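Lab notebook: predicted structure, single chain.

Context: the supervisor wants predicted structures on file for every construct in the current expression panel, including those that have not yet been purified. This is the next one on the list. No modifications to the sequence; it matches the entry in the shared construct table.
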Amino acid sequence: MNQAFGKSLRLLCSSDFQNVFDDAPFRASHQNFLILARFNQQTSPRLGLVVAKKHLRLAVQRNRMKRLVRESFRKQQQYFHGLDVIVLSRKGVDELSNTAFTDQLNQQWQRIFKKVRHVRLTSLAPAKPDLNPNDTGASSNVSASDQ
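Prediction complete. Output recorded below exactly as produced.
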């Protein structure tokens, strides 16, 4: 799989971001950041970043966080198949070292993967079999002994 991080792997327009904000069935919250995710209609995963000046004053800090998130996402993109993901910064993220931030981010990725895997497995599970194989699906209040 290509490990690049091109435009096809990014959430670019505000409507893409809004779709995730409006309906994000997968969430992983941490003290320093929040991850929102939802299924998309594409085969490739896409990443969006929301890094506020309020939480990271210096551009160097904002760029460092974005670089670390993009790198982590790029390395694990095969697990995000068909997902739109947004990572939002929170207060205090600037106090984490690169390794601490990456470790925390990887833990939250695992939480998202687990939730997505659960939904995918339950949606692929076969429907419950009928209890009465002779039943045609029409409901009847007449039992077999009454006939």
